[in-house]
Amino acid sequence: MGAPGNGVISSPAYVWDAQRRQEALNPRKYRYVQLFDDLPVGFNHIVGIVLFGFDVNAQGETVPNNFIATAFIKHMLPRGG
Q1: The dihedral of CA 35, 14, 48, 28: what is its sign?
Q2: Exposure string for 12-38, b = 16+ CB within 10 A, e = fewer
Q3: What is the percentage of the chain residues whose pLDDT exceeds 90?
Q4: How far apart (Å, rounded) are the C-alpha atoms in residues 11 and 76?
Q5: Do residues 30 and 70 lie in contact, with contact meaning Cβ atoms separated by under 8 Å?
Q6: For residues 37 and 2, is the Cβ–Cβ distance under 8 A?
Q7: How many Cβ atoms are within 10 Å of 44's Cβ, its own excluded?
Q8: What's the DSSP call for residue 60?
Q9: Would you say 35 and 68 are in contact if contact means Cβ atoms under 8 Å apart?
Q10: pTM
Q11: How many angstroms separate the CA atoms of 4 and 2, rounded?
Q12: What average pLDDT does range 12-27 have in this prediction?
């Protein structure tokens, strides 16, 4: 149920497969939570904070400027028990 066992998330697709929640006070900020079964003992989730935005390039075009602000590992109990 987790990412490849080498301890490195090799694809950004893992971020987009995670549960996503929009922050109430900043609509550009999202919290992604993904369960992994091969993290260090005592941890079972990776949490990532992503900011979505736009910028203007040299040609004056609007381009996406999205980035992962931070990520951390965390132990979370399963819902409902």
Answers
A1: negative
A2: eebbeebeeeeeeeeeebbebebebee
A3: 67
A4: 23
A5: no
A6: yes
A7: 20
A8: S
A9: no
A10: 0.69
A11: 7
A12: 77
